[in-house]
Amino acid sequence: MNKNNDHRQVGQRLGVGRSAVFNLWASGELESVTIGRRRFSTDRQLEEYLARLEQASGGDAA
What domain of life does the native source organism fall in (predicted)? Predict the structure, then answer.
């Protein structure tokens, strides 16, 4: 199942704070979906973002 993750869950998974999550969304680095007035990143979007980070770092990302 492709779960919707709010800013708290995204921050926890990425190890970053609220502002960093909103900056990632605003810059388009991390894709998101808006439902009503709330913004989420799906599990798939998070996995794709992490894969891009790993690829950019030469595969050394944890």
Answer: Bacteria
Nearest to 21 by CA among 6, 35, 34: 6
CB 39 within 8 A of CB 25: yes
Structure tokens, 14 = 């990425």
Are 10 and 21 in contact, with CB atoms under 8 Å apart?
A: yes
Count of C-beta atoms within a 10 Å radius of residue 5: 19
Which pLDDT score, from 0 to 100, does residue 1 have?
73
Sequence ranges of the domains in the chain: 4-56
* Confidence tier at 5 by pLDDT (50, 70, 90): very high
For the chain, report the end-to-end CA distance as a whole number of angstroms: 24
pLDDT tens track for 15-39: 999 999 999 999 999 999 999 999 9
